[in-house]
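User: Structure please.
Assistant: Input sequence and predicted structure:
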Amino acid sequence: MENTRKKVIIDTDMGWDDILSILYLIRNPTIEIIGITVTGCGEANLRWGTIIAKTLMDLGDQTQAKICVGTSTPLKFNHVFPQSFRDNVNDIMGLLGSLNPETSIDVQTQPAWEFIADTLNKTEESITILSLGGFTNLAKMLELCPSTRIDKITEIYAMAGAVYVDGNIALFNDARPEWNQGPIYKTNYAAEWNVFIDPVAAKKVFKTHIPITLIPLDACNYVILNPDYVDKITATDPIARLTKDIFKKVTGVDKEAIPVPIFDPLAAVIMAGGIKEYQAQSEYLDVNITDTAINNQCGKTYIVDSGSRKITIVQGVSQNEFAINFSNMINGKAL
């Protein structure tokens, strides 16, 4: 199995859904995590996101994985999550202090984009990238390391965008009074957060020839996080306990005041082949990169007539198939 495992770099902003994705992939015998690159453009602040990444790799005894720090500065704009929200994410909703793994892995001094570039330039095998946050680290690789062998990327799987459905910027902004950040957020019904956080970076990645499978809100909206997911986790080891505790937090006292799709774990399961059949189409996509105070469309992903290559857009998925595959993997019952 070792030689047939898919080699994956996970680029992540370390939200709760990113953590669930990583726990699933730690458990997955078909996946080898070769690196975690953390971005501070997203849910967790960069320092805390790095600590979480290290803790998860320690917890899973993933000594082969390199942990690299990215940037907190997007290529353009200053779109950010409310700090009160980030404060809660920074300690995994109060769960971080309970995690005390025996393994300890060092964080690399090499910046995230250099690590990705060096890995691609040196590898004899193809690399898959799972993008679970904004595209800033990948865009900086394209910008600062232009000779990178991007042909060694089999595919980028990204939880990002909203193509035929509403985005979640205004919805999130209005969910709680303390999350209100003004008209740029309040009037944006078009964008999804992972694109909105750095739309220029998303646009740059979309314009490459790298194969991309996008798992947008169109697909994520089919898989709503329900409290009964908790009961499907029956294993009692540290990975399973953390998974169960996160489910409890997000569906209980820490739940957002809006229906919560499963988000990033859906991208992880699709990337790993855990869902065999789903609806998808291929289109050329572009990204709006103009902020306005009225009817803001910045970060909107939309179909255009031409481009460097078409992007696969996942549209419809089975919530039941996701739930069975995810829980079986966490419980150590890989299908």
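The mean pLDDT is 95.
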